[in-house]
Description:
CATH architecture of the largest domain: Alpha-Beta Complex
Number of helices: 19
Largest sheet: 8 strands, mixed
Shape: globular
Helix content: 25-40%
CATH class of the largest domain: Alpha Beta
Number of domains: 3
Oligomer: single chain
Distance between the termini: 49 Å
Amino acid sequence: MKRIRTLLLPTALWLTLCFLVPPLPAADPDHSQISVTVGRLLEQHHYNQQKLDEEVGKQILVNYIEALDHSRLYFTQGDVDTLLQKYGSNIDARILLGNASPAVEIFALYRKRVEERIAKVKQWIEKEKFDFKSNRSIAINRQKLPWPKDSTEADQIWHDRIESEFLQERLSKQSTGEPKKVLNRRYGQVLKNLEEQTDADAVNTFISVIAQTYDPHSDYLTKDDLEDFSISMKLSLVGIGAVLQSDEGYAKIMELVVGGPAHKQGELKVGDRIAAVAQGDEEFVDTVDMKLNRVVRMIRGNKGTTVRLQVLPAQGTEGAARKVIAIVRDEVKIKDKEAKAELIEKKDSNGNPIRLGLITLPLFYSDMDKPGKSTTDDMLRLLNRLKKENIAGLIIDLRNNGGGSLEEAVRLTGLFIRKGPVVQVKNANGTLRSLRDTDPTIAYDGPLIVLTNTLSASASEIFAGALQDYGRAVIVGDRHTFGKGTVQTVLDIGRFIPYLGGGGKDAGALKLTIQKFYRVAGGSTQLNGVTSDIILPSIYDQDEIGEKALKNPLPHDEVPPAVYDRIVDAPLFIDELRELSKKRVESDPEFKHIRENQARVKKRIAENAVSLNEKERRDEMAKNKAREKAMEALRAKRKAPEEKTWEITLDNVDKPELQLVTNPPVEPAATPAAKPAAQAGEKKDAEKKPEKKKADDAALGEDDDEEDGDSKVDAVKDEALRILNDLVDISRSRKTASVATETARASD
């Protein structure tokens, strides 16, 4: 099959926390030439073909201000008006002339406002005393609210935030100390992170904003971002195999990759803190209070080279002796993003054993350098093993799959259809072409369900949409998928800058939207996504999640359908399946629980406020806790289903015996309320400050006892298996009836 190199990038780049290659560059790239090149490439090659004129320039300016101060807490309306007046009419020309000074100057003002604000906040933290008896509330999300009109209004907003954070620490079982100390440490970290930001960081953020103003999926990727993207597609890297997080000045080991160099070496432990790094036999460089991504870059290196870490043991104190650990860098496989499967044996409607397969696919990945390592190749291995185990039906779980390789979406679809177009792609000039599966063989022709949610995006939507249009699979999940119907390519910026000299290789890349894709039936997933045939209640099914919630999305449109043969000899019985599922879901306590949580989240988002009254907050927490306890008690009384589950991974897929899982892992475990750990190498530090984000979250009133999602029971997965069981039963009964009819006719 023809290799399609255009990529559908994930909605958010998956950033590994492990250590990458190559080593540090000798010098920073020329940002002035990069900004000019990005501007010209956007004008000439973006799908919209929009000139970077004064109108676009003003929007870039507004977006940059909001990227720095996303919660509208530090700038006032006066600041914003001054910046718009100073730069609004000429920033487009400055960009195209390579003048990045506005980015640096605006960031300098932002830095000044943050320093001024935190100085005042720290005074309040020491002096203010709150009784938490007021009837006031605070906005949870300020991104759509007006800027404070002046410093007086800003003072009131911040005073309420500090009161909310004090209250949050009083309510929190996870608090790490006395509220004053916690808040002082938190805002001290905000200042520390800010001090680490350089002018280059500010300009990188500005260039990204230029691209994102054209659409939410165009972006500027620094050299490090590009490496992260490569890793996300290949699912492998060269490093020591460790996950890092900032912890009070140290790079703390949060996880060791099983089978990685650090894990095999055996000395480095979870909880250890890195204090210094040395390359081979060179001298150590102190890394205490160093920005995390700098520590990561220092630990990067080539395969076979040695890095030495000076480590403070997990249980050690500040004065404890430091341990030196030498680790030889090697390739590390990222297995948590690989396809994996489950073999599930349960009872059918007649009480007879039935085996069902479930393949979970977190990403559409492909390693161009390693033939045979791709989503389709891995899925085929798992599928063949499931077929060997005599499965009667299959679920492909694409929940939370943000996309990946377009080629893999086309190839994977080809495993389930005979041949024909999979997706239509339209260029900026209106040229429409089809990407096709040309292999007439089918890897699996049995009953099939594709499980999706609102976070299933891009390549996931191509795959699900194609199988739905062909009539090959039943789509089960949220009302619709994410709604990303655009195609991106990655352009090496250094290739377009002939005068960069040695810095060209470090100029990064432009992720550029160049096409839109359409389903073979002519519809577009852009904004609308893929609509489920059977909708199940889900905490993710919120209007605030998806393409429509992003800034500057491209519009929805449609094209004429392609010529394709819809499958008619294997009906899906969707109406019958929907009615059977509806009856179960309406009476299922798990789905009632999900609907209640879904309604609470929706109400919270609509109200956008949390009380500053301690009694109200404690009462709400008590209600939430009682609701969860009641649900746990109900679960304890329910009889566990009679079923067995075997786990199938790419490591054991060819082994004679499979691993029986007593308590299968729940997928997905994350919820919208989850707060991810800070990530090493996280993109655009000027925008994303982990400690600052913690400060923002602390004012939201997300009390520790509240759980908007449930990580113990995967009701959606369980119901999808029941739907598959129904599909198998109906298909068998109709087939039997058809055979009986034909036999009777033959007898006549």
